Amino acid sequence: MQMKPYLLGQGVFHFVDGSVSCPLSHVSDSSAGSSSTINPSFLHWKQQYQLILSALLSSLFVDVLHLVVDCYTSHCVWRTLERALASPSNSRIMQLHGSFQNLRQGDSSVSIYMQQAKSLFDELTADGRPMSLEDFNLYVFRGLRGEFKDLVTSLITKAEPLSYADLHSHLLTHEFLHKNSFHSMDAAPSLLSSSLSHSHHCCQHHSPLLILLCLITTQTSAATGVVLEAIIVSTTTATLTRTGANLLQTGGQTTGSRPGAT
Q1: What is the domain partition of the chain in residue ranges?
Q2: pLDDT for position 13
Q3: What are the phi and psi torsion angles at 61 (to 5°)?
Q4: Residue 208, pLDDT above cutoff 70
Q5: Is the Cβ–Cβ distance between 110 and 173 less than 8 Å?
Q6: DSSP one-letter code for 92
Q7: φ, ψ of residue 36 in degrees (nearest 5)
Q8: Which contiguous run of DSSP H or E holds residue 119?
Q9: At 27, is the secondary structure helix, strand, or coil?
Q10: In whole angstroms, what is the distance from residue 71 CA to residue 69 CA?
Q11: 3 state SS of 35
Q12: Whose CA is closest to 99, among 121, 114, 130?
C-alpha cells in the first residue's frame, strides 16, 4: 500500500500495526487521595489515532470502503485491508493475464498503448505476481499494429529483453518516422498535380521547343529554371535569325532567276 511508506516516514506506523497498545485513560492522583485524573498520554494517543484513521479512510476508493465500514480503529482498518487486498486470489491474477492477452493497440498512440500495458504490469507486481520482462515484451509486440512488424522483428532478436523505457523509446521513434513518411506520400499527388498543371500552361502559351523547359523547371529550383529558360530562348532566337537569313537569301536567288526578271 502507498500509505505504508508515509506512515513509516511520519513515525506513526505503530498505531496501525498493533505494536503499541492504548495507554490507560485515567491515572491515580496521589495528591488527591483515591481520585484519578485523565492521562495526558491517552489524550495524545487518541488524537494521533483519530488523525491516522481519518487519513486511512480518506485514501480509500469508494469501491473498497464497504470492507471497513465496521472498523472503528486504524489497526482494524489496516488488518482488514491486508486480508482483503494484500493476498490476491487466483481469479484476479488470471483476469490480469487475460487482459494482457487481449491487449491491442488499435487506433491508440504508442504512449497510450504503453501506459495500458504498464498499468497491467504494475498491478501484477503489486499483487505479488510480477511478470518477467521477456513476457512483457512479447505481450506488447503481440498487440502492436502491422506497421511495427519490421521493428518487432529486429527487437525480438536481441539477447536481453528491453526495459519499459527502452521499448517505449524505440516504438515512439518508429511512430514518428512512420507518420513523416505518410505525410510525404500524401504531399506527392498535390506536387504531381501542380507539375502537370504548370506543364499544361506551358503547352498553351509557348512554342513546342519550350515544353521541355516546363517539364524540367517543375522539378528544379526557380533559379535553375530561369537559367535554362534564358539558354533555350537565346538558342531559339539564334535559330530563328539563321532561318530568316536563309529564307531571304533563297528568296533573292529565286527572284533573280525568274523569267522576265529585270
Answers
A1: 3-86, 90-184, 206-246
A2: 85
A3: -75, 160
A4: no
A5: no
A6: H
A7: -125, 160
A8: helix 110-126
A9: strand
A10: 6
A11: coil
A12: 121
Q: What is the pLDDT of residue 49?
A: 83
Tell me phi and psi for residue 203, to 5 degrees: -65, -30
- Enter the C-alpha cell of residue 233: 530562348
Mean pLDDT calculated for residue range 33-43: 79
Higher pLDDT, 8 or 211: 8
Q: Give the amino acid at 185.
A: M
201's torsion region: left (phi>0), alpha (psi -120 to 50) or beta?
alpha
Whether the full predicted model's pTM is greater than 0.70, yes or no, is no
Residue with cell 481519518: 54
Q: Span 184-205, mean pLDDT?
A: 53
Cα–Cα distance measured from residue 241 to residue 257, given in angstroms and rounded to the nearest whole number: 25
**How far apart (Å, rounded) are the C-alpha atoms in residues 216 and 220?**
6
What would the grid cell of residue 93 be?
A: 491474477
CB distance 82 to 42 below 8 Å: no
- Are 228 and 236 contacting, i.e. CB atoms less than 8 angstroms apart? no
Distance CA 199, CA 196 (A): 5
Residue 172 and residue 111: Cα distance in Å, rounded?
A: 8
